[in-house]
Design a protein that fits this description.
It is a single chain. The chain is built from 3 helices and 9 strands. It is an alpha+beta fold and 165 residues long. The chain has a single domain, classed as Metal Binding Protein, Guanine Nucleotide Exchange Factor, Chain A, CATH 2.170.150.20. A 6-stranded antiparallel sheet has the order 3-4-8-7-6-5, with no helix packed on it. A 3-stranded antiparallel sheet has the order 2-1-9, with no helix packed on it. Strand 1 and strand 2 form a beta hairpin. The relative contact order is 0.20. The structure holds zinc ion (ZN). The site of zinc ion has 8 residues, from loops.
Length: 165
C-alpha cells in the first residue's frame, strides 16, 4: 500500500459520512442507462459541490428562491453544472414566480425526461441528455409557445452571459 492509497482511503471515509449527512438514499438518476458522459459516483462526488451532487446525482431539490439564477435575466446560455452541456437559452426563460429558474423549452436534444412517482405525485423528471444529471421537473402549465414549464434547480445550472450582456 502506498502513501497515496492511504490518503485516498481517508478521503473516501470522509465522503461516505458526507453522503450519510445528505441522506443519499435515493437512487441516482438515470441509473442503469448509459450516458455519453459517465463516471463512478465517487468521481461525481469529488467534482461537484455537496449541493450540486445532492441535486444532480441524488435527485435533490434546492430550496425555492435560493438560486441567484432565479433572478437572472441577462442574455446568455445555461449549461449543465455536471458536464458543461448547453441546456437552455435565456430566450426561453420566464418568471414563473415559483422561486426556481424556469424555461418554456430546452435547447434541442439537450434534456431527456422520465416518469417520477416519488412523493406520492406523478411528475415528469428532467435530466441532462449528456450526463444524466437530474435538473428538475417539467409541468404543463407554462406560457406560450410551448405551454411547458421546465422548473429547474439553479444549482444544477451554470449561466454564462453573452458578451456585453
Ligand atoms: Zn450534464
Amino acid at each position: 500500500m502506498t502513501k497515496r492509497d492511504v490518503s485516498l482511503g481517508v478521503v473516501g471515509a470522509a465522503r461516505a459520512s458526507l453522503s450519510k449527512l445528505l441522506g443519499a438514499a435515493a437512487d441516482a438518476p438515470g441509473e442503469g442507462k448509459d450516458f455519453p458522459v459517465a463516471m463512478p459516483d465517487e468521481e461525481w462526488r469529488s467534482r461537484l459541490t455537496a449541493e450540486q451532487y445532492h441535486v444532480l446525482r441524488r435527485h435533490g431539490t434546492e430550496r425555492a428562491g435560493s438560486s441567484p439564477l432565479d433572478n437572472e435575466y441577462r442574455k446568455g446560455t445555461y449549461f449543465c453544472a455536471g458536464c458543461g452541456a448547453p441546456l437552455f437559452s435565456s430566450d426561453a426563460k420566464f418568471n414563473s414566480g415559483t422561486g426556481w429558474p424556469s424555461f418554456f423549452k430546452p435547447l434541442e436534444g439537450a434534456v431527456e425526461t422520465s416518469e417520477d412517482n416519488t412523493l406520492f405525485m406523478r411528475r415528469t423528471e428532467v435530466h441532462c441528455a449528456r450526463c444524466g444529471g437530474h435538473l428538475g421537473h417539467v409541468f404543463e402549465d407554462g406560457p406560450p409557445p410551448t405551454g411547458l414549464r421546465y422548473c429547474m434547480n439553479g444549482v444544477a445550472l451554470r449561466f454564462e452571459p453573452e458578451a456585453g450582456a
